[in-house]
Amino acid sequence: MDIRKIATWVEETHSEIGQTISPPTRKAVAVAVIANPFAGQFVADLTPLMDMGAELGELLGRKCVEALGITPAQAESYGKAAMVGENGELEHAAAILHPKLGAPLRKEVEKGAALVPSSKKMGGPGQVLDVPLGHKDAAYVRSHFDAIEVRLNDSPRANEIMVAVAVTDSGRPLPRVGGLTHEQAEGKDGLR
Q1: Which of 10, 80, 92, 163 measures 20 to 30 Å from 98, CA to CA?
Q2: With contact defined as beta carbons under 8 Å apart, do 75 and 27 qualify?
Q3: 190 inside domain
Q4: Which domain holds residue 90?
């Protein structure tokens, strides 16, 4: 895998609509910009991209947990996304995100019974990529339905793929739409 750059940052919300958020809600996102080995060509076997996805799930998941300064067990939600440059195709993003990225990411956040929310798109340098978020163990925890934006001014270039993983140690600030809570989640079936 040819990585051109990695970026990692943490977003903290301390106040929302005049209300103090204590402790602040925190989201970490780690992004890797990689060369797309299949840019500009149709290739039937996308196994090399799938294998890259496994490496990126571990690498980016670990970077998020480290950025938050938490233990893997303290991670509450996660998500993944990829944007292919103009010489790629959406299936390249799908190959990175779906077959193999999830299992290594789950190891980095301990457990992860729920599906990892994902998005994929085609774009160019500076375009926004939304990374959807959901509770890592129980998809019905509404307080953790969220997202974080990723944007790098020079990525992805035409022959690149920008891959992002996000991890949080909390849900949205001031959640109040009801439903299953983080404390109630059992995490046995990925739903509840």
Answers
A1: 10
A2: no
A3: no
A4: 3-14+23-168
